[in-house]
Design brief:
Blueprint lengths: L1 E12 L6 H7 L1 E18 L6 E4 L3 E4 L8 H10 L4 E7 L9 H16 L6 H15 L7 H8 L3 E5 L5 E5 L4 H10 E7 L4 H11 L3 H22 L5 H13 L9 H13 L3 E4 L6 E6 L5 H7 L4 E3 L3 E2 L4 E5 L5
Parallel strand pairs: 3-5
Antiparallel strand pairs: 1-2, 1-13, 2-5, 2-6, 2-12, 3-4, 6-7, 8-10, 8-11, 9-10
């Protein structure tokens, strides 16, 4: 048996600039971190060599790739031409909650399959291959940030070049600055799930318009400013920049925010959060807030109808957590 895992991500600033419709013209950038919440997949040989068994939210037992219902499983297993295997997935967080679950799944699956066939690949190739599967082969109207975050892990600045290359740069700070950032970020679950592709498709179309593109460019400037401030160990800059980024993001497409989300945001900021944002494409999932230590009690009280999720940053990226060489 082999077990692979990949972390979910929290995107701070610049989201949307990783869409091809934007970065191919202007270039884009995103600052994000991965968290210690993971997607796990395991694989082992199946007794029937011409069958495939898949276990996720449902169970599939098939004879041919064309029979597979799960689109990512279907594409990847077909690409690798693998049968006679049983693969199961599980996750710390449900899909559709704004933490990049689909791309995290794809990265973990590719890492699992490459390891199964005995081939080492770099984190960059894992991310690039995941982009190829989701964007090019499956035609999802999504960007690249989630795949690269899941593969590389950590607090990083991603720059999306017009030619398709992605530059990955770690954010270097003093250890106490990392600890302060981690302790001052509070995450709350709003409930519900969303289909990111619907919102992102509209956003991708909208940013071909000059006004929307200029808003997205401003969000890139905010991401670059946040990078500089964090590298100067000015962690408290996170709050104001999250707020500025969120105010701009809401104007990029309908469905990003709702009256309920706006109410949660107002309650949190009135109670002491200096800024925040909805995670993911929009509409549902998790909200993130930057809250100085002395105001966290009042923010938690203001949002006591929501479930808080403990927040810790991950630095590992996609990893193989167990391999039994008897599988070959």
């Amino acid at each position: 048996m082999i077990i692979a895992r990949a972390p979910f991500r929290v995107s701070f600033c610049g989201g949307g600039s990783d869409l091809p419709s934007f970065y191919k013209k202007y270039g884009g950038c995103v600052l994000s971190t991965t968290i210690r919440k993971y997607m796990y997949l395991n694989i082992h040989n199946y007794f029937e060599k011409e069958q495939i068994v898949l276990k996720y939210s449902k169970i599939e037992v098939v004879q041919d790739f064309s029979e597979i219902e799960h689109r990512i499983f279907k594409q990847c297993l077909s690409d690798f031409n693998l049968k006679g295997v049983e693969i199961a997935s599980m996750a710390d967080i449900p899909a559709g909650t704004g933490l990049g679950s689909s791309s995290t799944f794809t990265v973990a699956l590719l890492h699992l399959l490459y390891t199964y066939i005995g081939r080492y690949v770099s984190k960059y190739k894992l991310a690039k291959d995941a982009c190829t599967v989701e964007i090019e082969k499956l035609g999802e109207p999504i960007g690249k940030q989630d795949q690269f975050a899941a593969a590389f892990g950590g607090l990083k600045f991603y720059e999306f070049m017009p030619d398709g290359f992605v530059n990955v740069e770690p954010i270097i700070m003093m250890p106490e600055s990392y600890q302060k950032l981690e302790s001052n970020l509070l995450m709350f679950y709003l409930g519900g799930t969303h289909t990111a592709s619907i919102i992102l498709q509209e956003q991708s179309q909208n940013i071909t318009c000059f006004d929307k593109a200029m808003i997205q460019k401003q969000m890139c400037k905010i991401a670059k400013t946040l990078k500089k401030e964090l590298q100067k160990n000015n962690v408290d800059a996170m709050g104001d920049l999250l707020h500025e980024n969120w105010m701009l993001k809401k104007s990029l497409a309908s469905g990003i925010s709702t009256s309920f989300i706006d109410d949660v945001y107002v309650r949190a900021t009135n109670a002491g959060a200096t800024g925040g944002k909805l995670l993911g494409a929009g509409g549902a999932g998790f909200m993130l807030f930057y809250v100085p230590k002395d105001r966290q009690k009042s923010v938690r009280a203001a949002l006591n109808d929501l479930r808080e999720m403990d927040f810790e940053m991950d630095n590992s990226g996609a990893t193989i957590v167990m391999t039994d060489r008897d599988f070959i």
